[in-house]
Specification:
The chain is of the alpha/beta class. It has two domains: 119 residues, 3-Layer(aba) Sandwich (Rossmann fold); 94 residues, Arc Repressor Mutant, subunit A. The protein contains eight helices and eleven strands. A hairpin with a 2-residue loop joins strand 8 and strand 9. It is elongated.
């Protein structure tokens, strides 16, 4: 079995270093990020198998990061780390999509045990949303493979994430802002052409033959559907 990749997101440098060292010693491939925005970027680029995520970070905190990931369709398992001890915080963390909750201070062996337990649970959990189909277009999220009429389509990571987000919202018109948030992880329109550019890339590959599936709704956004 290949090494599972763990992403550690925590703004405390010393703690983050210790967490990474403990997980590497346990045999994991570990990367890290020092804040929420960097964490979102790392998820998009590195596709970790599990995220160890601090709740109390300046700027984009752990709960906000989780909401953005879940709203975008990302289901990467998340273990929260927090100094908070209220039951309300724990309930909120698990309700918004967290998989486990570890209160600081904690033993590093306990963290490793929690990571192993969540990883096993996810590996053995059946999922009905691993494969998305619209007409003769199919996206297999386990194999990371896209086909149309049985022919494989090669997509870049960003193109793949964009297509997956469209397929997860089949029939729904998504605005540029919703796509920026769901695929790129930010809501500010820093680059007004990025969505249009990538829609064009994906459309040329996916809609090379009939029926056309990706549609522009003028003045509103984009949708994937069978006309």
């Amino acid at each position: 079995m290949p090494e599972r990749r763990i992403l550690v997101v925590d703004d405390e440098d010393n703690l983050r270093t210790m967490l990474c060292a403990a997980l590497r010693y346990a045999g994991y491939d570990v990367t890290d990020a020092a804040d929420g925005q960097a964490g979102l970027k790392a998820v998009r680029e590195q596709r970790p198998d599990l995220i160890v995520l601090d709740v109390m970070m300046p700027g984009l905190d752990g709960f906000a990061v989780t909401r953005r990931l879940r709203e975008s369709g990302d289901r990467t398992p998340i273990i929260f780390l927090t100094a908070r001890d209220s039951s309300e915080d724990k309930v909120e963390g698990l309700t918004i999509g967290g998989d486990d909750y570890l209160q600081k201070p904690f033993n590093l062996d306990e963290l490793v045990a929690r990571v192993e337990a969540v990883s096993r649970r996810v590996e053995h959990a059946p999922s009905a949303s691993d494969i998305y189909r619209v007409a003769d277009l199919e996206l297999d999220d386990v194999a990371h493979r896209v086909t149309r009429a049985g022919e494989e389509i090669q997509l870049s990571p960003t193109e793949y994430n964009l297509l997956r987000h469209l397929m997860q919202n089949t029939g729904r018109v998504l605005s540029r802002g919703q796509l920026l948030e769901g695929v790129w992880g930010y809501s500010r329109d820093d680059d007004p052409g990025v969505v249009e550019t990538y829609i064009g890339y994906v459309r040329r590959k996916v809609d090379a033959h009939e029926p056309k599936l990706i549609h522009t709704v003028r003045g509103v956004g984009y949708t994937l559907r069978v006309s």
